[in-house]
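Figure 2 data, in text form.
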Amino acid sequence: MDKVVATAAEAVADVPDGATLAVGGFGLSGVPNVLIQALYEREVSGLGVVSNNCGAMESGLAILLAAGRIARVTGSYIGANKEFARQYLSGELEVEMIPQGTLAERLRAGGAGIPAFFTPAGVGTQVAEGGLPWRYDGEGGVALASPPKEVREFDGTEYVLERGIRTDFALVRAARGDRHGNLVFNKSTRNFNPLAAMAGRVTIAEVEELVEPGEIEPDAVHLPGIFVQRVVALTPEQAADKRIEQRTVSA
């Protein structure tokens, strides 16, 4: 099955207002910027985003956030994104902050058909006991707080129940991909991309290099094409457009 779509705009044309999205990337690494830009140009709004963070340096999800297109974020990191922090604290944005490893496993579990799992991460904290502020009221008070979660003991250790995550769509970026949707990620750009791809009911991948089926060795595939429904081949200029979040120079 040839899953290649001609343009990013065509690939995201059916993403509606209020859709939920799992988005790959970490900081500026492995972020599906072209697909995000296509969503921005469509003026889709009210989005529920599941991603490690919400963009950085006016890149990635930060462009949707700044435009007021995102209603809710499930993630594990705010970092230096001042607009993210401002919207959260002012009550404009609902935010569910969860441990990073838990986020990764919730995405993977959802994609694997596992509805829930137990983990020790968060036991004895508000992650399990509830009370984390999901939305502020704009005046310093909490308008909506997280509910308590089930805690169960196994072999003398307490674990908290976490739900798998499924989203309407997933947006990811890969270094190589074939027409069947098999993907290969380059080094650290792998990050949350395979997990986000698994969680989406419709997964759209932008690939820096499109190859024919059979050109990727089966053992080299990081994400099988069964998890991918649409593939967008980037232009050489789009593939080369990669920013550096923290530039350091050795002596």
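Caption note: Residues 182 and 225 are 4 Å apart (CA to CA).
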